[in-house]
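Reply to dn_fold:

You asked what the input looked like. This is it:
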Amino acid sequence: MKYHFHFFITLVFFGSLLAKDVSAIKIKDVDGKMFTMADHLDNDAIIILFWATWCLPCQKEFPAIQNLIDKYPDKKVKVLAISKDTPRSLAKVKSFIRKHDYDFTWLMDSDGSVSANYMVDVIPHSILADASGKIVYTHTGYRIGDELELEKELLQLWQE
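and this is what came back:
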């Protein structure tokens, strides 16, 4: 019984430490400039995509997300693509960005601190947040059609 109580207390404590919003994100972009999420909370929604250049499902997710945000031009959706690539792979990240025309903000989480804060162990990993930065939906992995669930969540968010 004592073990169960300690386990429960530990779960409650660590659960309260998990990030529940994205407004505190401070991270460098691919050019080394500091990006502060609190300065970008003037959107109807925020989508965060954790990815890496070696992650093929991540690369398949990007056009689906771009098509999704293009479908709602009257909505202001901020998409943050946070790369988990190492600093040594920065040239690959920049090359990938140049080859594609996605309307994303490209950020680097080379030290893994942002990923750790949001418990991102597996990529692709997506987070949807409302205009205040509160997380309303998360998803790990990507298969064709997963963007339909994200769209459903977006529409529900915009109705609130």
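The two ends are 43 Å apart (CA to CA).
Hope that clears it up.
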